[in-house]
Amino acid sequence: MNAPRLSRRSDIGAKLHVSFEFFPPKTDEMEARLWDTVQRLEPLSPEFVSVTYGAGGSTRERTERTVRRILTESSLIPAAHLTCVDATSAEVDKVIGEFADMGVRRFVALRGDPAAGVGERYHPHQGGYANAAALVAALKKAGEFDISVSAYPEKHPESPDFATDIEMLKRKVDNGATRAITQFFFDNDLYERYVERVRRAGIYIPIVPGILPIHNFGQVANFSARCGAHVPAWLAERFDGLQGDPQTHALVASAVAAEQVMDLIERGVSDFHFYTMNRADLVFAVCHMIGIRAAHSDGAIAAA
Ligand code: FAD
Questions:
Q1: 201 within ligand 1 shell (Cβ under 6 A)
Q2: pLDDT at 301
């Protein structure tokens, strides 16, 4: 019997690139868990790992501490997220300088969510950067940085239409962004259609899909509603009845995420950004399935 099509994917693992996103931990216990996660994912040689930044700089110290630890205690390349929320441009510039002094060369530049919470009206700080495009321009001026920005396959909830949304992406690219990472999504057709629109608008940077392995379907469904990501009925159906069964939930979640990534590979995608939620298992399993394996000391990929 022939091997099922998808299990033969491991041979192309070497052609794929992954990056992982972490959030700065709040407690010693969360920090220990994050560090376990970092150590488990490190051998997969991601292109970079990014660390999020809370609204209004609320996680500034924790983001800086996490990035510093990654720089000093791992071989990973960190990318620091930055937002414009509730800060003057001088304050943001100072943070950029602190990261640069630490040795950070990659940033993910964002406007950020309103300090009052997702769904509230956004008011730029009077003396601050008005949006992510302005922040990208500031980073470009501050140094030789690799700058990623956000992209929204289902458009940002504040955008009246796709044209407005893609116009903002274009401004970010014109100002120096070289990669866009998408909001998570579960319907690959929406991503493909979005990339077509982006290309038609003359934007040619990589639009890297953001993949969210589902650790808790209930929480993801709630969060998706707030950030405008559609949860298809078939996805809800897969997790139906698993609330009290974490083991099966995890098995289903890894199958669902692997299936999504494999389908994107079939469509020609080669770079993936994983929202890890500071947990390694699901991401590690998906990477294994697509042939991203720990590198041997001689740099070769382990036999698939
Ligand atoms: P922008 O790119 O500036 O704008 C996004 C869209 O909103 C645009 O397409 C534009 O059409 C529309 N828009 C913006 N302003 C207006 C306006 N005034 N009127 C009409 N439409 C408007 N948040 C954090 O707080 N910290 C993080 O670390 C973080 N990391 C993220 C990483 C990724 C990969 C992604 C996709 C999102 C992340 N976010 C983070 C969430 C992000 O901050 C929010 O989605 C925020 O609402 C928009 O920020 P942005 O940089 O996408 O905004």
A1: no
A2: 47
- Please give the Cα distance from 186 to 282 (Å, whole number): 16
Active site residue 21: yes
Q: Closest residue (by CA) to atom 21 of ligand 1?
A: 159
Domains of the chain: 13-289 (3.20.20.220)
Cα 47 to Cα 39: distance, rounded to the nearest angstrom: 15
Side chain identity at 222, as an amino acid letter?
Answer: N
| Cβ of residue 110 lying under 6 Å from some atom of ligand 1 | yes
> Could you tell me the distance, in angstroms and rounded to a whole number, from the CA of residue 152 to the centre of ligand 1?
9
Q: How confident is the model at residue 187 (pLDDT cuts 50, 70, 90)?
A: very high
pLDDT at residue 3, as a whole number = 44
Contact yes or no for 38/66 (Cβ under 8 A): no
Mutation to probe ligand 1, out of 156, 179, 211 (largest number of atoms < 8 A from CB): 156
Task: For residue 280, give both structure tokens.
Answer: 């390694």
Query: Which structure tokens are listed for 195?
Result: 């990339």
What's the pLDDT tens digit per position in 128-160?
Answer: 999 999 999 999 999 999 999 999 999 999 999
Q: Examine the pLDDT at 258 and tell me if it is beyond 50.
A: yes
pTM: 0.93
Tell me the per-residue pLDDT of 278-297, one tens digit each, with 9 for 90 and over: 999 999 999 999 999 987 54
Helix intervals (H) in 58-215: 60-73, 89-102, 132-142, 162-174, 188-200
Residues in contact with 143: Cβ distance below 8 Å, sequence separation at least 6, in sequence order: 96, 100, 105
Nearest to 149 by CA among 191, 182, 185: 182
